[in-house]
Design a protein that fits this description.
49 residues, mainly alpha
Length: 49
């Protein structure tokens, strides 16, 4: 089961395919980020790691 690496919430496999980075990490999900900004938040959190 896929999960958000930021908040540990469950996400669908489809969500993981779309929003995971090159290493498979999911930096944001609907549980911890606004739906409209998930891609932007993911990129920002990945840069700050």
């Amino acid at each position: 089961m896929a999960k958000c690496d930021h908040c540990n919430a469950h996400v669908s496999e489809r969500f993981a395919r779309v929003f995971a980075d090159e290493t498979g990490e999911i930096h944001a999900c609907p549980s911890c980020s606004a739906n409209a900004g998930i891609a932007e938040v993911s990129r920002e959190r990945a840069r700050n790691k």
